[in-house]
């Protein structure tokens, strides 16, 4: 007979082996359904026509209903709203238009009760020029003198006038340097002049920004989405000068951001260092307070090679989720092969190193999916981004097929970003159920009676039903086994048909077939197995529960997308 101790050891070993099975090695964020809320436009609780925190709180059940794991809120902090909250005047204060800190606490308490995580937008690169820190910096107050990037500029001997320290152009066009009359120096701003850049080479700045993270994790926040990451650090020579950036050749307009190659103002070593520091801090916080992983999502329009370093450079870890914007470059003419190229653009570089993927299809800076690719492609893309392994990121309203709405510019800088920021469409009542007030800050879509949550809830093949169906599938063992060998495959199997397979290799397999084109597609002998239709795009001629023998010829109608389920194995 085996000694008792050994038996216990074996039992523990079995338990341990059991717990290392596919699902348990997947942390919550790795296959999460993320949902971006633009707070001004989600739900208005007090009738002033602007969305707010109590509005969000009143709609949290909806997020639960549609299978959202975590929602990230665009900035809700005190702001003069020159860039609608991306110009923060106080990083630890809720803007009164959104509510109070007590409202925030109530929101997070209810979200956690429902099992929905809350992620905040963290905008470290810059503050508002109205922030007290900047005002103190202008006055060179003790400790704040070097809080921002200040420079004398270069004296032009001929004109005897001061010129900016370098040729850098801001993201929103025009010089990246603005003269401050009071301090008699230039300050740097990668975005608007009302958004001065903090100087992250100053340890005091880093301390202050870490304190901001601490303030919010102490209040229960589950992660941060870091805004404009690549822009955090700038190159400065040891002698205090700033090197000019070379001309790119992509633009003839010297005031346009595209005019230069941004080798000194993007993705600098200092930026990586700072991201690693935040991750280290949050990982330590997690252990100390027994919390779930606190996630860092990075907004970075950088190459996959650079994004890989933001995740982990071999010795340091950084962001878990550097947003993958590849799919946003698809348009109405994109074929299945284009989709495959786009997906491979991520999977070939990032997946082998990090086994991590995320798929963003929209945000508040880009045309809505329905506008970019066509209304008939919305459901196809929903199946794609939830069918691929990893984390999906959905911008509010995409799940019901909202489109851009014609609007007039309301911010200092628009470049027409308002059309994708209009109020969420909840039902067929006045203002689509968004507000009970007389007006809304942006117009409600004229199409809201067709595209809204209440109406789509009652329809079996609506965009909303497909979205819900896909988030439910993400909870199955087949979808959670994406780190296993053969756990997933993806490919364009014809010019227009994209296929994804997901399996746990022992119980079930799912197969997603998406016809991106406007022709009927015939597929021959896909596999030696019979499967069953479990999700169908709106105009599919097939029926739920119908069987299909994949060893025979099957077909997909134009723009048809389906999910099939069958037993694992036997190809
Ligand atoms: C932000 O607001 C809080 C609370 O109102 C206040 O205590 C703090 O000093 C403010 N911070 C800044 C930088 O203005
Ligand atoms: C500052 O240093 C850089 C790099 O070493 C050099 O190219 C530049 O000429 C220097 N500028 C001044 C004003 O000393
Ligand atoms: C990773 O980043 C850290 C911090 O910036 C740096 O010290 C280290 O040399 C880097 N390691 C590699 C392998 O690039
Ligand atoms: C997608 C996104 O968050 N874009 C923001 C990037 O940062 C600038 C400046 O903070 C904002 O204006 C954008 O909206
Ligand atoms: Ca309001
Ligand atoms: Ca910066």
TrEMBL record:
Its EC number is 3.2.1.20. Pfam families: Alpha-amylase. One of its GO terms (biological process) is carbohydrate metabolic process. Residues 1-22 form the signal peptide. GO terms for molecular function: alpha-1,4-glucosidase activity. Keywords: Glycoprotein, Glycosidase, Hydrolase, Signal. It catalyses: Hydrolysis of terminal, non-reducing (1->4)-linked alpha-D-glucose residues with release of alpha-D-glucose. The keyword Transferase does not apply. It is an enzyme of class 3 (hydrolase). Residues 36-421 form the Glycosyl hydrolase family 13 catalytic domain. It comes from the Eukaryota. Belongs to the glycosyl hydrolase 13 family. This is alpha-glucosidase. It comes from Ceratitis capitata (Mediterranean fruit fly).
